[in-house]
Design brief:
Number of helices: 12
Shape: globular
Structural class: mainly alpha
Number of domains: 1
Distance between the termini: 24 Å
Radius of gyration: 19 Å
Number of strands: 0
Oligomer: single chain
Helix content: 55-70%
Largest sheet: none
Length: 264
């Protein structure tokens, strides 16, 4: 089974699982799905207060205003939030759905797709908040913002591949759930999400540049904040690497799934 057939042959199932997951998260809340808009807005306020007003941080090459800094920061937090949500949930994805494991005909690899689409929904809602605030603060939204899906697409492929790999290992290595929590935090602070790579000492910049989130964050800011074109060649290379990771992740998942029922 190819990495796309896991989704293509079970589209209806993936969309239904995604819908149930999204609605289930907000079930019982007074504001319901509105929290998907309220939460990122509150998150932006906290980080803007901490970094913009208290620490007086400014982004190199920007206009220097607090509102622009807040938007720049929000782009990085949004991209990281998408990847971190999937990474943190992956170790418990199979372990938390033992009823599906015992059903021989159930395509377990679709669980990773539904998890990714659920995180993608929140990424979409965060983007709406970002564009609304940009319009409010600056009075305009760049047309290049329409290219954001093309920028994020390679990260989606990479995230699915990592999700297959980590979720399969999570069945056999329960401690991996503790490791990914630390790794998720490290990927935030060792990326360009909240730290400009230009301000990092040259000897340590390779750590930030090796972080797979840094390139996508920088390209997202390029099209949304500064209204420029993305690095198409860089995105092409990133896509090739992401596809290879996805193929490897799916191969590992398919091999390890044979022992899921025995372990669980």
């Amino acid at each position: 089974m190819t990495i796309l057939s896991a989704f293509g042959q079970n589209r209806s199932l993936v969309f239904e699982l995604t819908r149930r997951e999204i609605l289930g998260r907000y079930r019982g809340a007074s504001f319901g799905l509105l929290w998907s808009l309220i939460s990122p807005f509150l998150m932006l306020l906290v980080y803007t207060l901490a970094f913009g007003y208290i620490m007086k941080s400014r982004w190199p090459g920007s206009g220097g205003s607090t509102s622009e800094f807040a938007l720049i920061l929000f782009v990085g937090l949004t991209v990281h939030g998408f990847f971190a949500e999937c990474l943190n949930r992956s170790p418990h994805l199979i372990v938390g759905n033992t009823s599906y494991v015992k059903r021989v005909v159930f395509p377990l690899d679709t669980l990773v797709w539904s998890m990714t689409f659920s995180a993608l929904f929140h990424l979409f809602m965060n983007t709406l908040v970002l564009l609304a605030l940009q319009l409010f603060w600056t009075g305009k939204v760049h047309a290049t913002s329409l290219l954001l899906p093309a920028v994020v697409a390679p990260l989606i492929v990479l995230t699915v591949g990592v999700g297959w790999f980590v979720s399969a290992l999570g069945v056999y290595l329960r401690d991996i759930g503790q490791v990914v929590g630390v790794l998720s935090a490290a990927m935030l602070f060792l990326s360009s999400a909240i730290v400009p790579v230009q301000s990092v000492p040259a000897a340590y910049r390779w750590v930030f540049q090796a972080n797979p989130l840094t390139f996508i964050i920088d390209q997202a800011r390029q099209v949304v904040i500064w209204g420029g074109m993305p690095d198409w060649r860089g995105l092409a290379v990133y896509t090739v690497v992401a596809v290879l990771v996805a193929i490897l992740g799916h191969t590992v998942f398919q091999k390890l799934r044979r022992g899921f029922a025995a372990v669980l």
